[in-house]
Write a structure and sequence with these properties.
Subunit structure (chains A, B): Part of the 30S ribosomal subunit. Contacts proteins S5 and S12.
Shape of chain A: globular
CATH topology of the largest domain in chain A: Ribosomal Protein S8, Chain: A, domain 1
Order of helices and strands of chain A: HEHEEEEEEHE
Radius of gyration of chain A: 15 Å
Keywords (chains A, B): Ribonucleoprotein, Ribosomal protein, RNA-binding, rRNA-binding
Helix content of chain A: 10-25%
Mean pLDDT of chain A: 95
Distance between the termini of chain A: 30 Å
Low-confidence stretches of chain A: none
Protein name (chains A, B): Small ribosomal subunit protein uS8
Structural class of chain A: alpha+beta
InterPro entries (chains A, B): Ribosomal_uS8, Ribosomal_uS8_CS, Ribosomal_uS8_sf
Number of strands of chain A: 8
Oligomer: homodimer
Family (chains A, B): Belongs to the universal ribosomal protein uS8 family.
Largest interface: A-B, 16 and 16 residues
């Protein structure tokens, strides 16, 4: 069955795997899901991701990150902001900050998927797809 | 020692690993190297790639693809076209084809790294970074 909101599905699978202390999870791949995953890696929220060619649809394997000592969670939560039924757009001077900069907002812009911090620096707005903290 | 042409280095490492029939190889990660690797996956030249967070510089692990029967090579060769000392740019109506469409040309455009085929479709030119066949 096709997923109605593949980005929400990605965030939910990461949230569930993280809650259950799993080492990794797999989702079907798409360009926007790979870009979001890459941002999670660049921002230090996950340990690695792998994109694997598959006959029908490629998949992404995401390896989660936990603290070295007591396996503390690195991701507290991920929240879908813009939704297919209610799109949320923000101009560059109105982009959100998450927990006063402790979290990140992920934005789709004309120049690709990036953090709100980077979009502000570039002076471009976009669709606020998720918050991660 | 920093590599003077990281893209040439990526292509050389893939070429060498492929010649030696290795299953996989690792290179230091950068955005452009990840984008080139993603195109190699999308175009069916490699089996998978993994981006792993590292203390200093992230790394990419590339898993090569060989034929199922006799481990035939999927990649014949990769060639650097534009070079730091001699940049090669092409307008959209002058983009190269490789082996009459059996290979691909990889182009950096204002809209990201993509195949020459896609750039032509979008009507944009760019820097021809490599040929793969």
């Amino acid at each position: 069955m096709p997923v109605s909101d593949p980005i929400a599905d990605l965030l939910t699978r990461i949230r569930n795997a993280n809650s259950a202390n799993h080492d990794s999870l797999e989702v079907s791949a798409s360009n926007v899901k790979i870009e979001i995953t890459k941002i999670l890696l660049d921002e230090g929220y996950i340990k690695s991701y792998e994109v694997v060619q598959q006959p029908v649809q490629n998949k992404i394997k995401i390896t989660l990150k936990y603290g070295a000592r007591n396996r503390e969670k690195v991701i507290t939560d991920l929240k879908r902001i813009s939704k297919p039924g209610l799109r949320i757009y923000r101009s560059h001077d109105n982009l959100p900050t998450v927990l006063r900069g402790l979290g990140i907002a992920i934005v789709t812009t004309s120049q690709g998927v990036m953090t709100a911090k980077r979009a502000k620096k570039l002076g471009i707005g976009g669709e606020v797809i998720a918050h991660v903290w």
